[in-house]
Amino acid sequence: MPLVTVSEILTDARKRTYGIPCFIGATMEMTLGAVTAAEEISAPLILGYNEAVAPAIPMAAGMSMLVRAAKDARVPVATILDHGTSYDACVKAVRAGSSSVMFDGSHLDYEENIARTREVRRLTEPIGVALEGELGSIGGSSFEFTESAGTRQNFTDPQQAADFVDRTKVNVLAISFGNVHGPYRGDNALDLDIVRQVFQHVAIPLVMHGGSGLADELYPQIIDAGISKINYYTTIARKGALATAELCAQQGGNIIEHMLIARRIEFYHQESKRILQLFRAAGKA
Ligand SMILES: [Zn+2]
Predict the structure, then answer these.
(1) CA of 204 to the centre of ligand 1 (A)
(2) Catalytic site residues?
(3) pLDDT tens, 2-28?
């Protein structure tokens, strides 16, 4: 199965109303676990690399591994640079073979977000790499244990979304509707009406960042409202670490590295399968 772009697989997800998780983390264990799960239930999959992991896993190593895994998979798998912060980061991801990149200019002025996103588009478009843009900033951090909630003033404006897509020609769009990176506050308030309105205003697939850690019953509602790609990291990464810690505790000193690696792969396999099924991606590949 060839490596595909997020645009290719998400266009089908938008049309048939299912979600595709984008697992970010770029560890070998997450990658092997998620790909074998997707193969087992014939689901499409997205693997992301975020520069926040660079101190542990440099982009060239992490992204190349994702690309290799996607090329070897028996189901369509897309790779993406998550939250590319600069043109150079996007170039690096393309050089490492990624089929897709995200440029995040959501913290910039509206016109500057457009200008910078268009600049990246001039890099990606001629070589068939898909581009994700972001409009309306999404708060929080996936790598800190602070809980936060979205602020309404940063929510994506549906009219502006239409203008943004028209002028930047991005292939997929990340939006802000109360979603936050990292752990959610218990009383999180997602405004799914914003999602429905943006869905009506633009014809491309929509993305939710900060997608982990919600009640299971919310995901079908989010997908029905119009989200096709859900970035999923904090909860799964935390549970994966705890599963490993548990094995360490059980084994006392009688443990070697590959027992932990095998445990993590098994955990990510089971959990990825559960999430793909929850998002109704099973059988869609
Ligand atoms: Zn994000």
Answers:
(1) 18
(2) 82
(3) 899 999 999 999 999 999 999 999 999
